[in-house]
Design a protein that fits this description.
Blueprint lengths: L3 H10 L29 E11 L5 E8 L6 H19 L6 E8 L20 E2 L5 H9 L11 H11 L13 E7 L11 H15 L2 E7 L11 H10 L3 E3 L6 H11 L5 E3 L9 E6 L5 E3 L5 E4 L4 E4 L10 E11 L1
Parallel strand pairs: 2-3, 2-5, 5-6, 6-7
Antiparallel strand pairs: 1-13, 3-4, 8-12, 9-10, 9-13, 11-12
Helix pairs in contact: 2-3, 2-7, 5-6
Length: about 325
Amino acid sequence: MVGELGLALLLTACGIDNELVPKTSEPDAPLETADTADTGISCLIGSTTDYFEQQIPNQMDVLFVVDNSGSMSAEQQLLASNFPLFLDYFQESESPIDYHIGVVTTDMDNSSHQGKLRDAYGFRYIDSDTPNADVVFSSMAKVGISGSSYEMGLDAISWALYFQKDYNAGFLRDTAGLHIVVVSDENDEYSATKKEQLAKELIELGQQRGQISSSSISPMKPNCSTDEGAEYLYLTEHVGGFSYPICLADWSPTLDDLGNQLVQLKKEFYLTQDPYDQTFTIVVITPDGTVSNVPAADYSYNEERNSIIFDDDKVPPEGSTIAVVYDTEICN
């Protein structure tokens, strides 16, 4: 690990100024931007550097949101029977993963559901200490088919995260990455929670925790003949995550791929400030001390999530330090 002083020296060697120094239109004069010039507010443009340590996340909270309406029996069985493929990635990882995995349903009519974790064998979620964890999860995932036909997956997510904290106590940890997986054969057309607002709230959670995803196993074209799960796919697109068609007869590739994806090195890094002009200098220092500037073609900036996302084949190696230098606006 490179210390901050050592990293500063390396950045200087690369010709990068990582000190917060005002850049002005005239010497010693504050730069007035167009939207503040008439307000009497002075704004300075300074340089900010965010530092990240690249590693496989060692804490993860995974919330499965499972449709328990009348048409979901086969899908619940497929989820339960293929779950060991998913869990293997958490249990067999070279770096131990401290995981919590729980299940809620899409039923918001029944007060015993409404974002409350499902119990099985005395557990409300499984972790690395749960005996026969795959068996316990299988029982949790088979939530039955007597639930409301008004599937409200978005509400279930919101309630599980915000309104059932006492009932779900211990499941969510502020220091853990958060991953949501919706499993439903119908789109959500009934939730009071709007997808845009929920996406914004989930992105904020990701910025606080350092990692978040919202994945979906739902109707998708061209694989499925039913209407797409548009609300869930919206979350996947805007929050980040992985989408899979629910209508496949074999779910082993789905659960295997999802588990593998969640335990990979991080490719997305949330910035601490809003960039002024979305121009970045990114430096990667590998464990052996090699310092390299990252070409702009190797990453993208996501404005909605205020994050840097590396291309799949350009993710910095484990143990690297990543420095992202960009301009920010500071107003008095």
